[in-house]
Write a structure and sequence with these properties.
- By secondary structure, the protein is mostly helical.
- The protein has 11 helices and 2 strands; from the N terminus they run ααααββααααααα.
- The longest helix is centred in the N-terminal third of the chain and has 27 residues, at 2-28.
- The two termini are 36 Å apart.
């Protein structure tokens, strides 16, 4: 049961990261290989703010804001020029950006791992009757689930979300209605970047923060997107929860094979349901 709960905690984090990745791809058609670097930027920005303020809440907000700003600078400065370019060009430019961001972080903080202390309200364990479980991991589930719900609400219950989803289906028609679609698409990229940075700070107290930690998270997030379906917000959540359980339960028997099983699941999805569990056929 402890591993099941670990899988839930990891799953909601992966879902949060993959949500940003899938809405960026679904809206803009950009394969963003810099998403893992934004995760790292958020983790280190949150760490610096925590050292300065000793407030975990301010650090969470600051991590999201810093990643948002970095994401908007990326989008306006370079990535927007690649919207209509082949995916190979997008992969190369975003991969190059990720290397630059990671090396900037390494230059500022060095290669030594940093650790974000647990917030005071996250210390200790909770007796759940059938087991005891770390308080902070339970709080991670609640925080990440709240953020995912807020993103869902914005996308499916607001005028902004309506414009974004309409732009995905037919950007030309939305432009003909007098709406500046590019401005909204820029906002989508910023939201995706903020989600990655926020997840990076949440993840901080659970691991040692190092400049290269975003690479594995990026790969796992792409697997989540494939499992759930490209461009599908609910699919990213479902894919994250499935991926978290696969990684956690496989580690119970042999940690070496956890990634193997995750990629095996992705291969099966690609063979039997290429659009993903909740994806739309033809949108890829």
């Amino acid at each position: 049961m402890s591993q099941v709960f670990n899988g839930l905690a990891l799953g909601v984090l992966l879902a949060l990261i993959a949500t940003g990745l899938t809405i960026i791809y679904g809206t803009l058609g950009v394969i963003n290989f810099a998403h893992g670097a934004l995760f790292v930027v958020g983790a280190y920005a949150g760490f610096s703010l925590f050292v300065a303020t000793e407030s975990f809440v301010l650090s969470l907000i600051g991590a999201a804001v810093v990643s948002l700003i970095v994401g908007l600078v990326m989008e306006r400065g370079l990535i927007q020029r690649f919207y209509n370019r082949p995916h190979e060009d997008q992969i190369l430019v975003t991969f190059g950006i990720s290397i630059v961001l990671v090396e900037i972080v390494r230059g500022i903080y060095g290669g030594v791992g940093q650790r974000v202390p647990l917030p005071s309200w996250g210390e200790g364990v909770v007796n759940m009757g059938f087991m005891t479980y770390p308080t902070y991991r339970l709080e991670i589930m609640a925080i990440a689930a709240s953020v995912l719900f807020a993103c869902w609400y914005v996308l499916y219950r607001t005028r902004l979300g309506l414009i974004i989803r309409s732009g995905i289906e037919d950007a030309l028609m939305v432009r003909m209605l007098g709406i500046n679609v590019q401005r909204y698409f820029m906002l989508v990229f910023g939201i995706g970047a903020a989600a990655a940075g926020f997840a990076g700070m949440i993840y901080g107290p659970m691991v040692s923060i190092v400049p290269d930690m975003g690479f594995r998270v990026l790969i796992q997030s792409f697997v989540v997107v494939v499992l759930g379906g490209v461009g599908s917000f609910p699919g990213a959540i479902l894919g994250g929860l499935i991926a978290g359980q696969i990684l956690s339960l496989t580690s119970l028997f042999n940690p070496v094979y956890s990634d193997v099983m995750l990629f095996a699941a992705m291969a099966l999805i690609l063979i039997f349901r290429p659009q993903g569990l909740m994806g739309v056929e033809g949108r890829a």
